[in-house]
Amino acid sequence: MITGNDPRQPALVLLSGLPGAGKTTFAQALKRRLPATVIESDAIRRSLSRQPTYEPGESARVFGIAERNVARALDQGRVAILDATSLTKGDRRRFLRCARDHDARVIAVRLTAPEDVVVERLSRGRRGHSEADVDVYQRMRERVQPFSIPLIVVDSRFDPGPSLDLVTSLVMQSD
Predict the structure, then answer these.
(1) Among residues 13, 25, 53, 67, which is most buried (max CB within 10 A)?
(2) By three-state DSSP, how is residue 137 classified?
(3) 3-state helix, strand, coil in the chain (%, to 5)
(4) Would you state the pLDDT for residue 57?
(5) 11 three-state secondary structure
(6) What SS3 class is residue 162?
(7) What's the pLDDT at 24?
(8) Sign of the CA dihedral 138, 131, 83, 155?
(9) Contacts with 91 (C-beta within 8 Å, 6 or more apart), sequence order
């Protein structure tokens, strides 16, 4: 665990993954290791509406707020951890541009797990802000697009310690 040290430059940890893949769990574990701000799209959506519609206009508001929160953290020289599905190039574009505009390092992390594990996770009661269920997972899995930047892939069935160590090291390194 890093204690008392600040990153050498602002950084964006861009999490990606289908519902139930473990993004929020990973984000919270990483926050315990780094001086970071977690920007969770599901929390933003729930703050806007008790009954989210997931319509394009609502999503535009959610991700506009998320982008401003990322920019604010990067302006302050902090680490921003974006906890969102970020499945498509279009989903990621604004955040990658924001990081570039702030001369921030980007560490992309795709959380994954086998379908049967994800279905089991989504079938039981969920804590937190996400409302995604198995139907949402099934619809969203067709949207997954490859990254055009280096990517760390984390299988969330296993101990996250080594992956958290790697991400922490990348955030803290000097250029």
Answers:
(1) 13
(2) helix
(3) 45, 15, 35
(4) 84
(5) strand
(6) helix
(7) 92
(8) negative
(9) 63, 84, 85
Give the tens place of pLDDT for each residue, 130-167: 655 667 667 878 888 999 999 999 999 999 999 999 99
CB contact burial 19-32 (16+ within 10 A = b; e otherwise): bbbbbbbbbeebbe
CA distance 82 to 87: 13
Three-state secondary-structure class, residue 146 = coil
- The SS3 assignment for 115 reads helix
Cα–Cα nearest to 158, from 128, 102, 113: 113
The pair of structure tokens assigned to 91 is 């989903």
pLDDT in tens, 7-48: 668 999 999 998 888 999 999 999 999 989 999 998 998 888
Query: CA angle, corner 58, sides to 55 and 60, nearest 5?
Result: 105
List of domains in the chain: 11-172 (3.40.50.300)
Residue 14 DSSP symbol: E
List, in order, residues 6 or more apart from 119 with CB less than 8 Å away: 20, 134, 137
